[in-house]
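Protocol step 4 of 6: structure prediction from sequence.
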Amino acid sequence: MSLPRKTQEQIPVPTPERQEERLAGLARLLDPGVFKTQMSLSGTGQPELRIINRTARQLSESVGVSGEEYVWSWGQVIALVTVPELAAQRISRVLATEEG
């Protein structure tokens, strides 16, 4: 027996304030010695977290919240907002240099 999946209409849309809270929590999980983080608004006015590798500035990306998920700027899911540690781990891996 499988559980019913939520449709797009059933997924609650978090308020911009809640999105910002979730992104701020994610930022706290990233190593500040490796990454600089900056909260801003996307072109659509949604909160986003800009993450920049301090030793290789070209390794940078924006992350947002869509429904119940952390997403890259192009919309690919990183992890559920209920597991920010997993999102931080995946972001760190993608934006890491060979040295770390």
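Step 5 (inspection) to follow. The chain has one domain: 13-94.
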